[in-house]
Amino acid sequence: MQRQVNRVYEEWDRISFSKPKMPVAERKKRAKALWELCRNEDKWTVDIDDAVLATSNVVFCAIEVRAWKEAIRFCRAFFDHPDIEVADWVSYDHYSVNLASALLLDGEVEIGLREFAEILERRPKAKTHQRNLVRNHLCALLERFEKSAPPDPRILKFVSELLATWKGQMRKASKVLRARTNEELLDIVDSTYPVRVEIPILLPTDSKTD
Q: Of the residues 34, 55, 87, which one is the last residue of a structural domain?
């Protein structure tokens, strides 16, 4: 794999941090061009570090316009990199939670929850971090669901089982199963941690499920 240090990084930096901020259409066009620069049809032509950068903006742009299937495709392509096993764990987790989130937003609830479950099983020595990562992204997702709508029973079950693994949260784990709306569920999950850390989830704050 070649490492196109200057070209890939510099273009990623321009797309991500240009001032004034690039218009959405231009940002999407340049992000796609950078992605294509790093690939030959369905295969990566750059190393895993450049793949991290190339994936970043195409995923963000896809989710920004609620193109969940595109976001899923880009995330999955990242995990198809031949050197994925040596990817840094921050990037690996980052694209894992965004893949899970995009799947849930696209209506693929069971597959999305399975992705979250795999994150929880990853890196046993960092169990608390993985749990908080999933918990925070679930909160971010619930904020984007229709507040008054009844929660999906599969999500209720997953959240209840997640909280049951936390010391002192058994009562809330049971309460989750009685949540009647997404807003009630969010309130319960949000109350399980003193301060919710704001995370750079690749989901614009005004996104809603279609």
A: 87
